[in-house]
Amino acid sequence: MWREEITPRRWDGEEGYYKRTRACGRLASDETLRLQPPIAHPRSRVAGNVYVCSPSRAPLVTPRRQPLTDGDPPAVKPQAWWQGAIIYQIYPRSYLDTNADGVGDLPGIIERLEYVASLGVEAIWISPFFKSPMADFGYDIADYREVDPLFGTLEDFDRLLVKAHRLGLKVMIDQVLSHTSSEHGWFLESRCSRENPRANWYVWADARADGGPPNNWLSIFGGVAWQWEPRRGQYYLHNFLVEQPDLNFHEPAVRHAVLQNVKFWLDRGVDGLRLDAINFCFHDQQLRNNPPKPENERQGGGFRADNPYAFQTHIYDNTRPENLPFLGELRALLDRYPGVVALGEISSENSVATMAEYTQPGRLHMAYSFELLGADGTPAHIRRTVEHAACAESAAGWPCWAISNHDVERVTSRWARGKTPPHFATFLTAVVCSLRGAICIYQGEELGLDEADVPFEALRDPYGIAFWPSFKGRDGCRTPMPWQNAPHGGFSAVAPWLPVPAAHLQRAAALQEVDSASTLNGFRHFHRWRKLQPELIHGDIRFLAADERMLAFERTTGESSMMAVFNFSGERQHIELAAAVGAEAVSGHGLPEGERDGVVVSIPSFGAFYARIRRA
Fold first, then answer.
1. 539-614: which CATH architecture?
2. Active-site residue among 276, 317, 407, 445?
3. Is 595 among the catalytic positions?
4. How many CB atoms lie within 10 A of CB 84?
5. Which of 156, 174, 345, 475 is catalytic?
6. Closest to 32 (Cα-Cα) out of 55, 48, 14, 8
7. What is the domain class of 179-248+286-317 according to CATH?
8. What are 236-263's pLDDT values in tens digits?
9. Domain locations along the chain
10. Is 345 designated active site?
11. Domain 102-178+252-285+323-529 has CATH 3.20.20.80
12. What's this model's pTM, rounded to 2 decimal places?
């Protein structure tokens, strides 16, 4: 039987040209010929009926992006869509359940893409949806090229990609490179013996003379970072859960296989990658012990001070210099796909410096750390962090900032100091979205959701279960999205995998849609306004002197500067700013507005003052 595939040949701006080719091949007995809905290449708006064969695993269900080859002419440098972009993170398990199993899925994301587009964001980042035993809810991957049936199918992902592009949204996906699931085929083979073809694909080491683990390395999730495997008579390394063995990136075959998995999704048409724990790929081959950390320094990104992991200075188990050449290999692959971006997650001893190092020319495009994901949300800390990044980064690099995600307490709870006003969430959004860099917004931030109090008996997070009660885990920020003030928040027709807090029902999206003063509409309003301020998207940043209750800075392009001043206190504040002389106040952002009288700027509680300075 004949089957017809669509082959991208060239594209120019929004209009593309396709040439159809026919591929002759025999269909398997379980395959049927069926009509697909119109599909379009990510760089075009061409539509047409395309015949493909089932099952959905067939690679013809979506137009493939064609990578550049050495023989292609140099590509015109693409516009850096990600510089200053707002990236909306979707945690699939908790977004929308369409098949009544209590867990969100890819069709649920598809159903809500118009909502996402209405937020004014440029891209979505989808947390892992790959085949997984779900020990760490998707960050333990058993097959990098398959969608877990819990979330849907590859065909569902292709439909998501096409619809997102039609709505003007870029699509970024998580890639977890440093480790796999213990149920991945690579590990199942590697653990069997010391002689098999993948024997060296994971980090294996002999026991000490007393039978103990090879060194003192610890797991972030508690306990030692080594697990005994009797079939090999060796320990394997797991920086995270026992079910997440670390790959041996010193092995060239591992790096090649990992990059081939990345290529699979690039060919499928994704616009970017969020690289989980990217600084954990390499380890010290000598397996040297990490030195102890002084008690007054036991605080790091992504883990608490009372976690034994914080008792060590992690110089041998992650952030190794060998990681840098691998980032070059990864970037060389990405550069074959114009417009694709790589965003690295960094959790290291000096995360901001590592961000800068990892975004040097020829490495990652962007990186973010946990510096603004901790408990310190003071103006002084924000300034220190952003200034450190600005001083360290290269001209080619670009920071990315996040104040909430799926791993930390929600920012409206984490940074609240005493009573906060109804617009507190919008205020925090405005602060982070006025900094230089791309911004990651976590689902529910636009609704002003606070941290859910999940009782121990309802916990699902192994991290929280291990450290309860001093650390309640990550479930409080992962509860389902409240779409309606209805049972289970309109997320699912059945009891969801985590309970929906009653307080979140009062912040349901449907209620906020019809309230012009809601956090949701304030979020939309601010982002519409921000798009009209080029300084806030492209400008450099310079901080201005201010007291501990205020954050003040300028964002400057070649033509003009925009001053941004924020009052983090519960009372009106006054600040003298020489730069305010001659500045023209810019209103319309939706926050309580400050006023200028000469060099004195007066700003209401949790308000802002924006002003533009034109250059001659």
1. Sandwich (2.60)
2. 276
3. no
4. 22
5. 345
6. 55
7. alpha beta
8. 999 999 999 999 999 999 999 999 999 9
9. 2-53, 102-178+252-285+323-529, 179-248+286-317, 539-614
10. yes
11. yes
12. 0.87
